[in-house]
Design a protein that fits this description.
The protein is built from one helix and two strands. By secondary structure, the protein is mainly alpha-helical. It has one domain. Strands 1-2 form a two-stranded antiparallel sheet. The radius of gyration is 12 Å and the shape is globular. The termini are close together.
Length: 73
């Protein structure tokens, strides 16, 4: 499994952490318990006015940019 996320997706645990596996990353989503934000807008919506969510900030959105160093399968 590989998690494909936009490089602009942010959440409380995202800052300063590096995740060793996709499982750790997914656990972080569940544990965050706070809104997700877009680093481009600094809001809970992206530049396309759609809600920022891990399951929605992917290559299907026009504002998506891949996260460097993450393999996409």
């Amino acid at each position: 499994m590989s998690v494909d996320l936009c490089r602009h997706l942010r959440w409380k645990e995202r800052y300063g952490l590096s995740f060793r596996s996709d499982a750790e990353l997914l656990h972080s989503f569940a544990a965050a318990g706070v809104p997700f934000t877009c680093n481009q807008t600094c809001q809970t919506w992206g530049p396309d006015d759609e809600l920022v969510l891990p399951e929605g900030c992917d290559r299907t959105r026009g504002c998506y940019e891949p996260t460097p160093g993450r393999a996409v399968t």
